[in-house]
Specification:
The structure is a homodimer.
Chain A (H helix, E strand, L loop, with lengths): L2 H16 L6 H8 L3 H7 L3 H21 L5 H17 L1 H5 L1 H7 L1 H27 L9 H22 L5 H16 L5 H15 L1
Helix pairs in contact in A: 1-2, 4-5, 4-8, 5-10, 5-11, 7-8, 8-9, 9-10, 10-11
Chain A binds a DNA duplex (30 and 30 nucleotides) through α3.
DNA sequence: AGTATGTTTAGGACATTGTCCAAATCAGAT
DNA sequence: ATCTGATTTGGACAATGTCCTAAACATACT
């Protein structure tokens, strides 16, 4: 692990712990037993460091998005995995709005991944319709909106309202919410998959 | 309007414009043609100023919450009003997570209003069941969860994804989302109210 | 009117922040 | 061994929120 990676790793750890805005570069440097200027050598600005973390999360999520989702079960499983990634990089999602407002590099990069995610969810939903998991009259735009809102902010709400729960319990709370959301639009085959998914969370 | 109120008004204006974290007390003072120390006389810390804004929003919302909601239409109308208040104090909601993490006064106060809102929504939903607007088998906890998540973060998502829309269009977007959410759980009478509500947004 | 008392304003000090830079140090190839 | 480029250091800089003292002001009382 080279110096840049050590900085990234410790930064993620401290940012997750206390929030990006509340960890000074001098504290980060002190934890690494280096000088501040040494960090700015690898990452000229704090935003560059944050951008790097965002790239790492983006890569992590891209793997999950590329997977096939032949069933409603695996579609829900996909969100469980993405939410697990969110926990790993929770500092980014907890500062989501500020980062988008202030960090041009990040907000630019997000626009692209946003489009990809949107069309990915649309594709998956219509695929689930074809395979007989979802009813044909479902309002896709509505479902995508709720999924997007939840995926973006579930961890923000959890940090405020469910801080007493473990990460896994928090994840289960919100994937269950997504599962329940789909029930009215699911076929009998779909509802079976949702029950199977809910049961898989128990263990 | 006394000095403290002038400070509060200008602060809200600038905070909404550029974000609480990105407006310095010196800029605020300059806009008011006063000195920094003059602000800290009325509001010893920046958090005190933010707390005041939060109180104002809380009072504004409390009025709406106390209203009766005899129909599904007025229940949805309630959220439209609350969302309009959110727009007026959007700086607070855009910094929601940070404020909750850092500002003890604010997070303490929020815990109470959170409970009130939660039980208020529960009461309203069961009342709507009794009045024949909602089916009796609805999963109340699920609905409250989605409503809460949306009410907290709709404006954050709108600021990122729908910045090109006007405030009213943004509000309509998300109250429509809440309305659509209820459709599967509504009776025929309820669906009639939802259609009426959607139509009322057009004008 | 003059004085005393309490409120408001001015102005600056302080520590902390992210950023930046020049010099010192190190490492590896010639 | 020496030169060259990469790395590290230590400090300067402006901006931030906070704090404090002295001046200015207003109000009430003698």
């Amino acid at each position: 692990m080279n110096k840049a990676e050590k900085i990234v790793a410790k930064a993620l750890e401290m940012f997750n712990e206390r929030g990006i805005e509340y960890v000074g570069l001098r504290e980060l440097a002190a934890e690494l037993s280096i000088r501040v200027g040494n960090i700015t050598y690898y990452f000229p600005t704090k935003d560059d460091l944050v951008d790097r973390l965002a790239q790492d999360l983006s890569r992590l999520n891209a793997q999950v998005i590329l997977e096939e989702h032949p069933s409603l079960f695996s579609f829900l499983e996909r969100f469980r995995k993405i939410f697990a990634n969110h926990v790993q990089y929770r500092c980014l999602l907890l500062s989501f709005v500020h980062l988008m407002q202030q960090n041009k590099v990040l907000s630019g990069a997000y626009k692209e991944t946003e489009k990809k995610r949107y069309s990915s969810i649309v594709t998956n939903l219509s695929s689930l319709q074809e395979r007989g998991y979802l009813s044909l009259e479902v309002d896709t735009d509505f479902l995508v909106s709720v999924f997007t809102l939840t995926a973006r902010f579930w961890i923000s709400e959890a940090s405020v309202s469910f801080a007493h729960l473990s990460p896994v319990e928090q994840i289960n709370q919100y994937v269950t919410l997504l599962a329940k959301l789909l029930i009215p639009y699911a076929t009998e085959k779909g509802r079976h998959d949702i029950r199977r998914f809910s049961a898989s969370l128990e263990s």
